[in-house]
TrEMBL record:
This is Phosphodiester glycosidase family protein. GO terms for molecular function: hydrolase activity, acting on glycosyl bonds. InterPro entries: NAGPA. It holds the Pfam family NAGPA. The chain crosses the membrane at residues 12-33. The keyword Oxidoreductase does not apply. Keywords: Glycosidase, Hydrolase, Membrane, Transmembrane, Transmembrane helix. Residues 177-356 form the Phosphodiester glycosidase domain. The keyword Secreted does not apply.
Length: 357
């Protein structure tokens, strides 16, 4: 039997009619279907664990809070202990510093008392310079005690800053803005110029080469570590071993290691008395300069070298060296000439020791 298309469509419509009607009824009725929790066992398990996990979390937070509180209290105690310890350490350091300076202060008081009371003093981070008046039986003069506290507190300069040049110590001090100055080594005149005697050093270099010590000449100056060095040197290596920074030469050595040295016969009487300039040191490396006044250089006024030796011993010096004297003796302090030059005015000389604050 042959079916037409129209017949087939009619058959399909009749077959689907019940299902279409059921779907329309369900939508119109707005029915909802609720499944039991047992239908989702994993979800039920998770929801059951939420209260327990929350309790654990709350307990953990409480413990963390307690731990943080304890830690904060411990930190506060540690900070308080650190602060107290730091204060104690500072106090101990202050006491230790004071105690470490005490031997120096005692020694300084002792040597200062031997010279007298300072007439004037200049004190800075770099240097302390104390000026004293000297009144002896046969002469008057001045003492300059210097404590070098840092590098650059003392230097030696050339007259007019050139080899063969000369100027007064006052002019050199004013030009360099120094607080004090003393004439240094001996010199020789030649062709209208003044040249330093023998070995002379500036800024760690030899000005005109090294001369081995001969006759009664010595070299005296400052080392790189700001200590006085001096004496007779047979070789350049011998002097270099003491790391000299600057220095000059003259005659004679007066004191070494606290012991008076023999004064050459020539210098005992030629002249007998005269203005003098002397450089010395103490065992704590302070420097001492003596500048003795005299009316002239004919031997009738001023001090003998033996008297200067006695003065150095009395003041407690360790090493002492005679610098150029007579009309060359010069002491400048705080912008003025302190001593009384025997020429009636300062003599231009080729080397000067200057001090800076």
């Amino acid at each position: 039997m042959t079916l037409t298309v129209k017949q087939i469509n009619r058959f399909c419509l009749l077959a689907c009619a019940p299902f279409i009607g059921l779907a329309i009824w369900l939508m119109a009725a707005n029915l909802s279907i609720t499944l039991p929790e047992s239908a989702f066992p994993q979800l039920a398990l998770t929801q059951a664990n939420v209260p327990a996990d929350a309790a654990k979390l709350t307990a953990g937070l409480d413990r963390a809070k307690q731990t943080a509180t304890v830690t904060a209290k411990s930190l506060k105690k540690s900070i308080a202990l650190y602060t107290a310890t730091n204060k104690s350490m500072r106090a101990i350091a202050t006491i230790a510093a004071a105690q470490s300076d005490r031997p120096y202060l005692i020694y300084d008081r002792r040597i200062t008392r031997k010279i007298g009371a300072p007439a004037k003093q200049i004190n800075s981070d770099k240097v302390r310079a104390q000026l004293f008046a000297i009144h002896a039986q046969h002469f008057n003069g001045y003492a300059l005690k210097v404590k070098l506290k840092s590098e650059g507190a003392m230097k030696m300069v050339l007259g007019q800053d050139k080899y063969g040049g000369a100027e007064t110590t006052l002019a050199a001090a004013q030009r360099y803005h120094a607080i004090a100055g003393v004439n240094a080594g001996g010199f020789a005149d030649d062709g209208g110029k003044r040249y330093p005697l023998s070995t002379t050093m500036m800024n760690g270099s030899y000005l005109n080469g090294f001369d081995p010590s001969f006759k009664d000449l010595f070299f005296v100056g400052l080392s790189d570590d700001m200590k006085l060095i001096g004496g007779k040197y047979a070789s350049k290596a011998q002097l270099d071993s003491e790391q000299p920074r600057f220095g000059a030469s003259f005659v004679p050595v007066l004191l070494q290691n606290g012991n008076p040295q023999p004064i050459p016969a020539k210098w005992q009487t030629s002249p007998l008395r005269a203005p003098r300039t002397v450089i010395a040191n103490y065992k704590d490396d302070q420097l001492l300069f003596l500048v003795i006044d005299g009316r002239n250089e004919n031997g009738s006024s001023g001090a003998t070298l033996a008297e200067v030796q006695l003065l150095l011993e009395r003041y407690g010096a360790i090493d002492g060296y005679n610098l150029d004297g007579g009309g060359s003796s010069s002491l400048v302090f705080d912008g003025r000439v302190v001593n009384h030059p025997s020429d009636g005015r300062l003599r231009p000389v080729p080397t000067h020791f200057l001090f800076f604050k």
